[in-house]
């Protein structure tokens, strides 16, 4: 292919005979949709574990589908509004955005962000992997991992444009690009160093060091168009769509299951609106005041007190006095209220997305207008403050964290047992071979590092229920001999 954006890592060996007549980016989308990696996300937690909710709530698959829907709507509008700027920056193809949105969460492990934090800690501290674990980097690894002994292809062989659009954080944890963006002042969003660990690299990153060559190839067509550390336009659209979906659709879930209480949210928002010049953030309204101050510290390029106050009032009126005014009871009327809230907010935010030629360092080439940016911050605040900080959720998540830690230990013990070499799960053996082939000969502790990465890849590829079932079996508590083996 002549278009460098449409080039693949390994030619077109996986493209069906009739596919080349259509957009290569649409082919990418179809590959992602038909992959087992996307199907797995139906069993992975978004915010609330589906098994404990008693109602239908979002999982990583339905979240990804909504991000793809929102992202495509944004891309179509921006491409039509300013095709010259889009072309100058490298393109804003709706098919690319949709494909990237579908793929952006492929690497998320069991139990959502909790699983991500636990696996990162275990990868760095127990398994000796400097790159640790990061869900975005794991997604990129899934779509680009290519060969085991030069034969079996397990990646998706996507085009440069789609791979670049998946890179929400287009840097590795420690070294790429050089100079690394964590040393910028201010650093790009997500690039700041790991707290209390000056040698830990960036907190968020888009690829492991083993995929640096793939990152360079994917980003090559955008060289000179966007900065080395900056998202492509299509990645920026996907990122904005992810923010919008999280801010709106996850609120649906917590309303459905009754954990988002009108009184608590109303008390915080209304108390802040009555604040004077006092500075005590321990009183009612203090949490949202802390958010206002944090936005000024981190995002002074867009933070505005008037827009912040307007956003608090709008969320109070439409969420507190609107959606939360009556509990969700499963009726058609309740469903209609949820659907109307989601549709109205989605339309409002999608229509407010802009493309910018010279963005701030902590922004992308695609961003929400000032007013809607503040509204998203308030919506996310409600979710973080009144759901994610709940002690009952913490109790549940601590148990899930212990389960993942025990699972990693059990697999490491199995993998290092010389008497069990021939009885290891085939998938785990394949992953060890792949990880070892990625490391140059003579790499210190090559075998141990390969085993560690293979265990992380294996655990990250499980659903919530598979992780629970596998740990049950490895603990000797399960009696379902043959069905347990299906997890492997």
UniProtKB/TrEMBL annotation:
It comes from the Bacteria. GO terms for molecular function: dGTPase activity. The keyword Amino-acid biosynthesis does not apply. GO terms for biological process: dGTP catabolic process. Residues 60-247 form the HD domain. It holds the Pfam family HD_assoc. The keyword Transmembrane does not apply. Keywords: Hydrolase. PROSITE patterns: HD (PS51831). NCBIfam families: dGTP_triPase. This is dGTPase. It comes from Actinoplanes derwentensis.
């Amino acid at each position: 292919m002549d278009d460098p954006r449409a080039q693949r890592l390994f030619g077109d060996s996986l493209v069906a005979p009739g596919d080349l007549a259509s957009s290569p980016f649409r082919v990418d989308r179809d590959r992602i949709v038909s992959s087992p990696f996307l199907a797995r996300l139906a069993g992975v937690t978004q915010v609330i574990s589906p098994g404990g909710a008693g109602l239908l709530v979002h999982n990583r698959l339905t979240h990804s589908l909504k991000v793809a829907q929102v992202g495509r709507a944004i891309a179509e509008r921006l491409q039509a509004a300013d095709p010259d700027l889009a072309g100058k920056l490298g393109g804003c193809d709706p098919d690319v955005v949709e494909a990237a949105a579908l793929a952006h969460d492929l690497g998320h492990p069991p139990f959502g962000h909790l699983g991500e934090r636990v696996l990162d800690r275990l990868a760095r501290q127990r398994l000796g992997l400097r790159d640790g674990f990061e869900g975005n980097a794991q997604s990129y690894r899934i779509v680009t991992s290519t060969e085991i002994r030069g034969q079996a292809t397990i990646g998706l062989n996507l085009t440069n444009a789609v791979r670049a659009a998946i890179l929400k954080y287009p840097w590795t944890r420690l070294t790429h690009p050089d100079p690394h963006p964590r040393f910028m002042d201010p650093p790009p969003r997500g690039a700041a160093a790991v707290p209390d660990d000056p040698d830990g690299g960036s907190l968020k990153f888009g690829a492991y060091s083993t995929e640096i060559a793939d990152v360079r190839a994917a980003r090559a067509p955008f060289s000179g168009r966007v900065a080395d550390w900056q998202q492509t336009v299509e990645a920026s659209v996907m990122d904005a769509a992810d923010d919008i979906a999280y801010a709106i659709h996850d609120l649906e879930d917590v309303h459905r299951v009754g954990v988002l209480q009108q009184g608590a949210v109303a008390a915080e928002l209304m108390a802040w609106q009555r604040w004077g010049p006092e500075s005590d953030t321990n009183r009612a309204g203090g949490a949202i005041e802390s958010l206002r101050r944090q936005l000024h510290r981190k995002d002074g390029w867009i933070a505005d007190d008037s827009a912040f106050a307007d956003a608090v009032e709008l969320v109070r009126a439409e969420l507190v006095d609107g959606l939360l005014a009556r509990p969700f009871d499963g009726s058609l009327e309740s469903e209609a209220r949820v659907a109307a809230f989601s549709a109205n907010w989605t339309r409002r935010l999608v229509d407010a997305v802009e493309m910018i030629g010279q963005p701030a360092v902590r922004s992308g080439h695609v961003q929400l207008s000032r007013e809607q940016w503040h509204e998203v911050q308030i919506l996310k605040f409600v979710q973080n403050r009144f759901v994610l900080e709940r002690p009952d959720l913490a109790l549940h998540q601590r148990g899930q964290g212990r389960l993942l830690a025990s699972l990693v230990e059990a697999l490491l013990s199995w993998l290092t047992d010389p008497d069990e070499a021939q009885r290891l799960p085939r998938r785990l053996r394949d992953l060890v071979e792949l990880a070892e082939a990625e490391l140059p000969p003579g790499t210190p502790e090559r075998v141990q590092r390969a085993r560690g990465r293979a265990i992380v890849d294996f655990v990250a590829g499980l659903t919530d229920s598979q992780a629970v079932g596998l740990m049950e079996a490895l603990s000797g508590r399960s009696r379902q001999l043959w069905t347990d083996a299906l997890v492997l």
